[in-house]
Amino acid sequence: MKTLIIDHPLVSAKLTTLRDKNTDTPTFRKLVEELVTLLSYEATRHLIVKETEVETPITKTKGFVIAKPKPLVVPILRAGLGMLDGMMRILPNAEVGFLGMVRNEQTLQPSTYAERIPGEIKNRQVFVLDPMLATGGTLVAAIKLLIDRGAKDVVAICLIAAPEGLKKVESTFGNDVNVTVVCAGLDEKLNEVGYIVPGLGDAGDRLYGTAD
Ligand code: URA
Q1: How far is CA 105 from its chain centroid?
Q2: Which string of b and e fits 169-206 if b means at least 16 CB within 10 Å?
Q3: The whole model's pTM is what?
Q4: Which residue in 2, 88, 99, 195 has the most C-beta neighbors within 10 A?
């Protein structure tokens, strides 16, 4: 497994505003989109492209198009949905699948309540959107499902990761499977109820106004 923590002044500044408890829901939602677009730039670094020819007003030259099969983007509902537009801005032709997962707030174990993944994902590059990599339970379950269905490699885009979550993804997949986690910040720890510290609180509540 590879981890990329994006060290960029725009990413750090946007993440700081997201963390601020006084940031309102519309601003929070807009910043999540912007941040994901910035993270996507690095997350798609190894996107498979195919050589093509293009005719400019001057002459013919070689270029590249995104190879088939199309990459697949999978937001994990609910909070991952707030990341989708930011991702699709740079990958507008990707296919989108959905995974609805919820973590039991007592046991912290994930369960799947909705699944809409294309039947055929063999050899696809898959981008999973999940803002908070906390215990890692949800992300590990999502990646396992996608790998079992044939995904070629999986890049998880998160806003914030906790060391505990990264460790869980790493110990589950090691180097056997091609998994990369791209995030804007690596935080200190989880608290006793599984929230990331310092974190930004409940990403879903902050995106959808239930925190106000
Ligand atoms: N999910 C969240 O939304 N926030 C956390 O800190 C942990 C999990």
Answers
A1: 22
A2: bbebbeeebbbbbbbbbbbeebeeebbbeebbbebbeb
A3: 0.95
A4: 99
**Does any ligand 1 atom lie closer than 6 A to the CB of residue 203?**
yes
Atom 7 in ligand 1: which residue has the minimum CA distance? 195
Q: Which residues pair with 109 in a beta bridge?
A: none
Reported as a single tens digit per residue, the pLDDT across 168-199 is 999 999 887 899 999 999 999 999 999 999 99
Identify the active-site residue in 19, 37, 85, 103.
Answer: 103
pLDDT tens per residue, range 45-87: 999 999 999 999 999 999 999 999 999 999 999 999 999 999 9
Domain boundaries, the chain: 2-205
| Distance between Cα 135 and ligand 1 center (Å) | 9
- The domain at 2-205 falls in which architecture? 3-Layer(aba) Sandwich (3.40)
The Cα–Cα gap between 64 and 53 comes to: 8
